[in-house]
Design brief:
Blueprint: H1 3-12, H2 16-25, E1 30-31, H3 32-37, H4 43-55, E2 59-64, E3 67-72, H5 74-105
Antiparallel strand pairs: 1-3, 2-3
Helix pairs in contact: 1-5
Length: 108
Amino acid sequence: MSASLHREALEALGDANRRAIVEILSGGGRSVQEIADRLPISRPAVSRHLRLLKHAGLAADVAEGTRRVYHLREEGVEAVQEYFAEMWGEAARRFRILAENTQLAQGE
């Protein structure tokens, strides 16, 4: 995954309403109205947040009759998972080195 996809996806998740929308979409596809019915924000606000999530690669939509149904994009979710796996892996590696060096310094 590209660094720009990681960055855009993480920036999009920096907003509580967008995180709530992602949580709603994790249960499956939903229309704008279905999402708005579950949040304390207006339908136009939900649409704006969905546009940002689409731009960040986290959501996509398909036409179903006269409405659009939004769902999570696998690639976007994987980009976020990959980012955290890399960051936690690096943090764990550094912690392990620090612990080993501390043991050596203490003569253990």
